[in-house]
Each structure stands twice: as structure tokens, then as C-alpha cells.
Design a protein that fits this description.
Layout lengths: L18 H6 L35 H4 L27 E6 L5 E4 H5 L5 E8 L4 E11 H8 L7 E6 L19 E5 H4 L5 E6 L2 E2 L9 E3 L12 E7 L6 H5 L23 E4 L5 E3 L7 H4 L14
Parallel strand pairs: 1-10, 4-11
Antiparallel strand pairs: 1-2, 3-4, 4-7, 5-6, 5-10, 7-8, 7-9, 11-12
């Protein structure tokens, strides 16, 4: 029997969901309300129901003050320090195996995409988790704008390296700049999301503003922050944490409660704000969207 399925983005643009309304609805459904967005964001619709998180939202005060961002420092308290990273002007280099390599201003980019809100679960490899309303656009839209050649098999994201604003870059231990990557079929997946906002406002610097990626089926270190360069290539990149310790942090880094980190279990996770411990799900609960990507890759270390 043929079943017609509506695509998740087939919803009208109208209003931003207020934080208080979503918290009152347990973070699963949007409520009516309007909130204008500054800094290059567009008005957008209620949260896309295709990606219901199935979990209460994390309060904004926790999601924006407990952050890993080693370019600033190696603690979780980077929110004040991160304000030194200017959010405008901001450009993104599109390089590598493209029809037309070029540099694009973020505000010009925003004029070419359709934005929406998605409530995603975020699972850190350190076994803490949050659930937040991101604003942004599908990575698939960016792929269409970039026009990679058919021979490109990977896409690489590079984070800002501003030594005047990021004191952590002075550490010689880390192989700066921060670099992460995806296979092209992962990048084209519906879940891969370019983030420009959080809680109906421009995404703050400590959360990766003004442009980051959200990959909710992978451990959080895969979701590069403050992106300044996107490169298309036919060679698998050596990603940041993989380069530091490949036995602990692999290229794929898909969430799996049954595959422990060498130094701790991944079976459970701590929810920011409540500190409640809950069971972790395979692919962080997004297996219906992404499990098929790895059918032909089962010989690889998919879960580290």
C-alpha cells in the first residue's frame, strides 16, 4: 500500500515559539506567540513536528552556561569569555571540490535559505545531555547553494580561530583549528541542521554563534561551532578529537549506549538542570532517520 508522507518542512512561516509556552507544554509542542528575531534570523514557524524530541526542554539558563568550547578554555564556564568573539561581520569560505569556490557573508546566506525551528536532543560524549529549540536550516540547503562536485565524498567544517578573542588557542596541546567532518550522505540527511538561533534569539557565542551545526544522532563534539570554512573533498578528514586520541574519539561518533567510552559507560546520561540520570538510546533516539546510512559501513567503528 502506498502511504503518502508529508515532509516535515511543509508548514507556513508565522511565529516564533516563546520559551515559557514550550516549557509549560513540557517542551514537546509549540504554542502560539510571536517573537521577532534579530541578527540575520528570519521569522519562522512553530517547531517542526517531524523532529519531536520526546523529552522536556532544558531551561535556557542551563543550556547557555554549561558549554564545552576549548578555544576559550577547558572548563564548562565559557559564557562570559565567549562574548569577546564578534558575531558580525562573519563570512564562510566554501572551498574544495565545488563548481564555484567562494566566500559568502552569513547575512547573504540567510537570504537564500528557508529557516525553521527544531527541538533536538543533544548528547555529549561526556554523558550529559540537553534538549533545546534550535533555529536554522537544513544542511541539505547549504549543499545546494555550495554545489559540490559529484566526486566529493566528505564535507569538512572548520571553527573560528580568533586569538584576540579565544585565549584557549594559545594551548600548544591541541591541533588547532578545530575541524570536524561528515560523509556526504550524512550531510544530506534530513536531521543535519545548520544552527543560527537558540530560544528564538541568535545563537550565542558560547553555543557556537553565529553559525554551527547540530547532528543529534552523534556525540556533541561532532557538531562544530562558529563555522568559518566548509570544504568539500574526496578524502576522509582527520577530525580534531580523532587526531588527539583516536582510540576514544572516532570519525563516526554515533551515539550507542552499548558501546562504552574507554573511560566511562555510555549507558546513561545526565540531564542538565535536573541532574536526572536517564537511559541513553541508540543514535540518541533518531535511528529511524539515520540507521540506514550505516548499513554498508558495519565493518567500521561507528560508535566511538
Amino acid at each position: 500500500m502506498l502511504i503518502a508522507r508529508r515532509r516535515g518542512w511543509e508548514i507556513p512561516e508565522s511565529r516564533v515559539t516563546p520559551e515559557s509556552a514550550m516549557l509549560n507544554r513540557r517542551g514537546l509542542l509549540a504554542a502560539a506567540g510571536a517573537l521577532s528575531i534579530a541578527g540575520g534570523l528570519k521569522a519562522y514557524a512553530e517547531p517542526n513536528p517531524k523532529f519531536a524530541a520526546g523529552r522536556d526542554l532544558t531551561e535556557e539558563k542551563y543550556a547557555t552556561t554549561y558549554n564545552n568550547y576549548y578555544e576559550f578554555n577547558d572548563s564548562k564556564s565559557v559564557s562570559k569569555e565567549a562574548q569577546a568573539l564578534s558575531q558580525r561581520p562573519w563570512t564562510i569560505k566554501l572551498e574544495g571540490m565545488l563548481k564555484d569556490p567562494r566566500t559568502i557573508d552569513i547575512d547573504d546566506l540567510m537570504k537564500q535559505v528557508q529557516t525553521e525551528e527544531r527541538i533536538y536532543r543533544h548528547r555529549c560524549v561526556e554523558a550529559w545531555a540537553m534538549t533545546v529549540p534550535w533555529t536554522g536550516f537544513s544542511l541539505a540547503q547549504l549543499l545546494k547553494i555550495a554545489e559540490p562536485l559529484g566526486s566529493a565524498t566528505y564535507v569538512v567544517f572548520e571553527t573560528a580561530s580568533d586569538k584576540t578573542a579565544m585565549p584557549g588557542l594559545n594551548s600548544p596541546f591541541y591541533p588547532w583549528p578545530y575541524q570536524e567532518g561528515l560523509a556526504m550522505d550524512e550531510a544530506a540527511n534530513d536531521l543535519a541542521f545548520m544552527v543560527t538561533g537558540l530560544w528564538g534569539k541568535p545563537v550565542p557565542p558560547q553555543n557556537g554563534g553565529p553559525l554551527r551545526i547540530a547532528l543529534p544522532w552523534k556525540y556533541g563534539f561532532k557538531s562544530a561551532k562558529s563555522i568559518v570554512k566548509i570544504t568539500f573533498t574526496d578524502k576522509r578528514p582527520k577530525t580534531f578529537w580523532e587526531g588527539i586520541q583516536p582510540s576514544e574519539y572516532g570519525f563516526w561518533a554515533n551515539v550507542n549506549p552499548a558501546v562504552s567510552h574507554p573511560r566511562w559507560s555510555q549507558a546513561r546520561e545526565r540531564l542538565l538542570g535536573s541532574n536526572e540520570m536517564v537511559p541513553t538510546q541508540i543514535y540518541n533516539g533518531y535511528g529511524d532517520f539515520v540507521a540506514g546510512l550505516y548499513e554498508g559501513r558495519k565493518s567500521e567503528k561507528l560508535f566511538m
